[in-house]
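Hi there. Long-time user, first ticket. I'm pasting a complex I've been working with (about 271 residues overall). I'd like to know whether the download I got is complete or cut off, because the file seemed smaller than I expected. Thanks.
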Amino acid sequence: MEKLQTALDKARKAREGQDPDTDSITASVKTPQRTTDVDDLWAELTPFDVSAEQLEGRRVHTQVAGAKATSYDILRTKVLLQMRQQGWKRIAITSPMPSSGKTTTACNLALGLGRQSDLRSIVLDLDLRDPSISKFFDVTPPSGIDDVLTGKVDFKDQAMRFGDNVAFSMATIPDADPTRLLLAEETGEVLDNIENRYQPDIMIFDLPSMLVNDDTRAFLKNVDCALIVVRASKTRYGQFDACEKEIAQQTNVLGTVLNAYRYAEPGKMGE
Ligand SMILES: Nc1ncnc2c1ncn2[C@@H]1O[C@H](COP(=O)(O)OP(=O)(O)OP(=O)(O)O)[C@@H](O)[C@H]1O
Ligand SMILES: [Mg+2]
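Hi, the file is complete. Here it is re-exported in full:
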C-alpha cells in the first residue's frame, strides 16, 4: 500500500514537471502511449546550443529569468493566456516595415517559452527572402525550411531543438521568390502534419514585413493570430494603420509590440 502511494506521488510530481524520474511505474502512470511517441519525436530532433555572448549580442535575453527578460516574459504570458483562451496555437510575428524587431521578438518569446518545461514551442523562419534566425543563433541547419515545406525533407531531419522543448525550423539560403511556396495548399498541409505529430502548444512564425512584398499576405491564412512589431521613432502611424487593417482582413490581431522605446524604465522593453 505504502509502495503504491509512493508510486502515485511520484507520478503526480512527474506530471507536474517536478520530477524527471523515469521509474517504470511512474512512467506508465504518467504517459499514455501517444505522449510517449511525441516525447520520442522531440528527443530525436538535433539539439543545438547558443553561447550566452551570442544571445546577448543579438538582444535575446530570455534564456534565463532576469531584469532584461521581464518585459518579454510579460509578453509571453499575455500571448499565451490570450491564445489559450481562444484555443489558438499559431501566431505570426510581422511588422509594417523591415528592421522593426520581429526576429528579436520571436526569439525572445521562444526562449522565454522554453523556460516553461511543460510547454512545447516550434518557431518557423518564414522570412524566406532574408533568413535570419540561423544568423541570430550562429547555427547552420542541415537544410532549409523550404525543403520541409516542399516535402523534400522531413521536419525531423531539418528542425533543431533548443533545450528540451523549443524546436526551430530555420531557413538557410535566401529565396528570391517565395510567395508561391507561402501561398501553396501543400504548405498548409505540411504545417498541419507537423502540428499533429509534434503537438506543440504554440507555433511561432517569423514572417517578413507586411508592406514590402506579398509574402506575409500570402501566408496569413495559415495562422490563428498575428502580433505586430513596430519600432519606436521609425514606424510611421500610417504604416502601422495600413498593416493592421490588412492583417485584420485575414486573421486576428493579437496585439502590438512597441519595440526600442527609448524612454522606458530600466528592465522594460526598449532597453
Ligand atoms: N529594442 C531594441 N533596441 C535596439 N536594437 C534593437 C532592438 N530590437 C532589435 N534591435 C536590432 O535591430 C535590428 C533589427 O532587428 P530584427 O532583426 O529583430 O528585426 P526584423 O524586424 O526581424 O528585421 P527584418 O525585417 O530584417 O527581418 C537588429 O540589429 C536588432 O539587434
Ligand atoms: Mg527578421
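A couple of notes from our side: The two ends are 57 Å apart (CA to CA). Residues 32 and 267 are 42 Å apart (CA to CA).
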